[in-house]
Amino acid sequence: MKKVLSLILALALLCACFAGCGNGNNSSAGSADPNASAGSTAATGEKYKIGVLAPAVTHGWVAGVAYYAKQRCEELAGKGEIEYKLLTSNNAEEMTSQIDDLKTWGVQAVVAFPQWEGMESPIQDLINEGIPVVNFDIEIKCDGVYRVSGDNEDMGRQSAQYIVDKIGTTGTVIMLNVPSSGSVSELRQKGFEEKIAEIAPDIKVETYATKFTRDDGQKDFSDILAKHDQIDAVFSMDDETSIGVLNALKEAGRTDVKVVTGGGGCQEYFKMMADEENAGINIQSALYSPIMVQDAVDNALALLKGEEVEKVKIIPTTVVDKENCAEYLDESSPY
């Protein structure tokens, strides 16, 4: 009897040993894989941490960037995919400090709209620490940075084509460039001049400098009107400048201008396109909408999921005028 009891006890101990060893070898609960990719975060039920850095502007195109970035982040947060911090700054020093704050928070990817010089080093530091950065709009020299932007050069080409379609292959066109905007103005001017030379070389183009504000557009174009008895079209590169141009035309009582182009995505400008008061003018915008920042947020999330992402994503140009402007109205937009 003692032998039987001893045998039963031995078998029981042996089974317990096998059961314990099996659990230790096969269970992954609570374990951490040091080689796991960022994509493993979702598998643990955690949310990806994405930081968005934008300039602090209360109105205009730049304000639209923060508005649409927040809109997309809220959508993704509502789905339980991300946590986010959207920080706005007034200068490079403040944005650099915010990068440190994001690191302390544990940020895993950053969408940056660095409008100022001097952001290359802190953004490069993020990348070197293994935190992917998707740059919006502005091109900066950082190894490994991703970028989402509109097609500035094509905006110029599309505007040239629009003007020729409306006034023909002869006439006088005023080009309002903005030297202070750097490559933005340079590329839009390049695309415009090349397209005009290709399709309407007899058009006379006269160039004047201004800024991307309606006040400057109105003041500068008022001076230009005083110098020209006949202007057929205006190649303006920005919607805000174009609003100033339209105000100057109205103030001067001029009816010779048949086309005013723009660029951006300004809601007020869109409304002016279909306004009967402007019925004699073909008002156009080569869309460079701040809503593009949502693609940058999507790319940041895709990188964290381990998906393949284009290094540079260029958003094609869309032409908006009175025929389709209703499709682009957003009463909630600050721009």
SSE blueprint:
Blueprint: H1 2-26, H2 40-43, E1 48-55, H3 60-78, E2 82-89, H4 92-105, E3 109-112, H5 120-128, E4 133-136, E5 146-150, H6 152-167, E6 172-177, H7 183-199, E7 204-209, H8 214-227, E8 233-236, H9 239-252, E9 259-260, E10 263-264, H10 267-273, E11 282-283, E12 285-287, H11 293-304, E13 312-315, E14 318-320
Structure notes:
There is one protein chain. With 335 residues, the protein is of the alpha/beta class. The chain has 2 domains: 45-150 and 291-314, Response regulator (Rossmann fold), CATH 3.40.50.2300; 152-289, Response regulator (Rossmann fold), CATH 3.40.50. Helix content is 45%, strand content 18%. It has helices at 2-26, 40-43, 60-78, 92-105, 120-128, 152-167, 183-199, 214-227, 239-252, 267-273, 293-304; strands at residues 48-55, 82-89, 109-112, 133-136, 146-150, 172-177, 204-209, 233-236, 259-260, 263-264, 282-283, 285-287, 312-315, 318-320. Strand 8 (233-236), helix 9 (239-252) and strand 9 form a beta-alpha-beta unit. The longest helix is centred in the first third of the chain and has 25 residues, at 2-26. It starts with a helix and ends in a 15-residue tail after the last strand.
